[in-house]
Amino acid sequence: EAQVTQNPRYLITVTGKKLTVTCSQNMNHEYMSWYRQDPGLGLRQIYYSMNVEVTDKGDVPEGYKVSRKEKRNFPLILESPSPNQTSLYFCASSLITTSIDEQYFGPGTRLTVT
Amino acid sequence: GNSVTQMEGPVTLSEEAFLTINCTYTATGYPSLFWYVQYPGEGLQLLLKATKADDKGSNKGFEATYRKETTSFHLEKGSVQVSDSAVYFCALSARLLDNAGNMLTFGGGTRLMVKP
């Protein structure tokens, strides 16, 4: 089954404790992306990657890191989480043809930083 | 840069009412346009798309027509159901040839609530 998986689905942590949210897709997609969703602010892109070893900042990259060492995986790293990073996070992937095609989204990770 | 503007919600309708959610965009060249839907507690999923001017995307009774002259991609449904209650996102994807930066842009989302 074609899918994007994220882990963990729920996470409660404390300020400053490094964490990683994993994202994996099994569709051989070139494009992968991380978003955060906050009430009243819609969906905002954090980082994206056009292919292996190619990553770029989205609209709200501060406080986050990513890596793309393999095509299928695109982990999101919070080196020193803060309460303002409490949010719902989505990973997505898609093919690139003449543009970025339909995005497939993961189920989401709800992060709470206290 | 590219941008997508959606009508703010929430939109509250009675069952069987007609739905329109407005979406306008600004982009260089000829982007592809999408509507995504997010049901409560779930991730986004593609509802419909259109890749060139005058194309009409349709799915599950929803339709949207790519209007280049008005730079719009309004979502419509003739008769909504309670099960259509969700958040709807308009998005554009610029062509590789038209955009050197981030090609993907989402609107802010519109919450639809349908009452029985």
Number of helices of chain A: 0
Radius of gyration of chain A from CA coordinates: 13 Å
Strand proportion of chain B: over 45%
Tertiary shape of chain A: globular
Secondary-structure element series of chain A:
EEEEEEEEEEE
How much strand of chain A? over 45%
Q: Give the tally of β-strands of chain B.
A: 12
Low-confidence stretches of chain B: none
Helix content of chain B: under 10%
What does the secondary structure layout of this molecule look like, with pairings?
The complex is a heterodimer of chains A (114) and B (116).
Chain A: E1 4-7, E2 10-13, E3 19-25, E4 31-38, E5 42-51, E6 54-57, E7 65-66, E8 76-78, E9 87-94, E10 104-105, E11 109-113
Parallel strand pairs in A: 2-11
Antiparallel strand pairs in A: 1-3, 3-8, 4-5, 4-9, 5-6, 7-8, 9-10, 9-11
Chain B: E1 3-6, E2 11-14, E3 19-21, E4 23-26, E5 32-38, E6 44-50, E7 56-59, E8 62-65, E9 75-77, E10 86-93, E11 104-106, E12 110-115
Parallel strand pairs in B: 2-12
Antiparallel strand pairs in B: 1-4, 3-9, 5-6, 5-10, 7-8, 8-9, 10-11, 10-12
Question: Which key terms come to mind for this protein?
Answer:
heterodimer; A: 114 residues; mainly beta; seven-stranded mixed beta sheet; four-stranded antiparallel beta sheet; B: 116 residues; six-stranded mixed beta sheet
